[in-house]
Amino acid sequence: MKKTLYVILAAALAVGSLTACGSKSSDEADKTIVVGASPSPHAEILAEAQKILEKQGYTLEIKEYNDYVQPNVALDAGDLDANYFQHQPYLDQFNAEKKMELVSAGMIHYEPFGIYAGKTAALEELPEGAQVAVPNDATNEARALLLLEAQGIIKVKEGAGLNATKQDVVENPKNVEIIEMEAAQIPRSLQDVDIAVINGNYAIGAGLKVSDALACEDSDSIGATTYGNIVAVQKGHESDEKIKALVDALKSGEVKAFMEEKYEGAVVPLS
């Protein structure tokens, strides 16, 4: 009888131990934030925010992606708690195309688009039929075309705005050839074209500086006012405590100072 009682007690203790472990795992999950990001500058900025989050008891796991598709696919699938690499117009387009419901939990920074020299060293030296590389995703292509228009290289159809494609170019005095490319590939192809319009994060990753650019978006341009980079989450999770902690850390004075010092104008904090 005593032996039977001991067995029952041991089993009860084992169940209690497993339950306690399960509860601990749940608590740990609530304190772990898994975020997908482009390697530069987003993952670097997150690494700086990690120092603040650690003081608050959070563990930040940063997963790096080299494209603009997989971070949203992973977020929608629940493999990530958030991602940090994109602006709102791109997210809106992605949601519409993929029938997803990802939303912004906060806007963190802005990266000026720049025109960088390839085979041609200056915009005034741009030859007839010059090759110009631009991102091939809709929102970023429009942004690139508007920057080229601001420099007098082309003219875009009135009203095209953020939906502009190369089919909307109505004036092209030098008959430049606009080459649409995957945004991540453009820096690697810079030597093969005359000039290229490059996203800020990919320019940084390629070792390019804003000061090297032949032209950049003005602070009052559509890019500056529309294309702030956001922290995206699944709809309904915008107010989760750990998401609010993440956004607050990214908007902190420490992270703002880090952006300004490290990127020298290539990343502009919006907090």
Present the secondary structure layout.
Layout: H1 2-30, E1 32-37, H2 39-55, E2 59-64, H3 70-77, E3 82-87, H4 88-98, E4 102-110, E5 114-117, E6 131-135, H5 138-150, E7 155-156, E8 169-171, E9 177-181, E10 195-198, H6 200-205, E11 215-216, H7 222-226, E12 228-234, H8 241-250, H9 253-263, E13 268-269
Parallel strand pairs: 1-2, 1-3, 6-9, 6-10
Antiparallel strand pairs: 3-12, 4-12, 4-13, 5-10, 5-11, 7-8
Helix pairs in contact: 2-8, 2-9
Description:
Strand 1, helix 2 and strand 2 form a beta-alpha-beta unit. The chain has 271 residues and is α/β, with parallel strands linked by helices. The N and C termini lie far apart (69 Å). The protein has two domains: 124 residues, Periplasmic binding protein-like II (D-Maltodextrin-Binding Protein, domain 2); 103 residues, Periplasmic binding protein-like II (D-Maltodextrin-Binding Protein, domain 2, 3-Layer(aba) Sandwich), CATH 3.40.190. It is elongated and about 65 Å long. A six-stranded mixed beta sheet has the order 2-1-3-12-4-13, with helices on both faces. It has a five-stranded mixed beta sheet with strand order 9-6-10-5-11. The chain is built from nine helices and 13 strands.
